[in-house]
Design a protein that fits this description.
57% of the residues lie in helices and 0% in strands. With 56 residues, the protein is mostly helical. The model has no long low-confidence stretch (mean pLDDT 85).
């Protein structure tokens, strides 16, 4: 993905998170797959790093 595509996906996820936080019944359907799990683990460990390729 390019920068613009990453930002659009991030914006979509931020809106889903806002809806989850404000509406307990909201279901976005996002599975916690291997890619998302890796992202979550890296954020929680403070290991956010620059990647030069996208394996997704």
């Amino acid at each position: 993905m390019n920068v613009d595509q990453h930002l659009k996906v991030a914006q979509w996820h931020m809106e889903q998170a806002r809806l989850h936080a404000t509406n307990g019944d909201h279901k976005c359907g996002c599975p916690v797959n291997d890619v998302y799990k890796k992202c979550i683990d890296e954020i929680e460990a403070g290991l956010v790093k620059e990647e030069t390729t996208c394996d997704v």
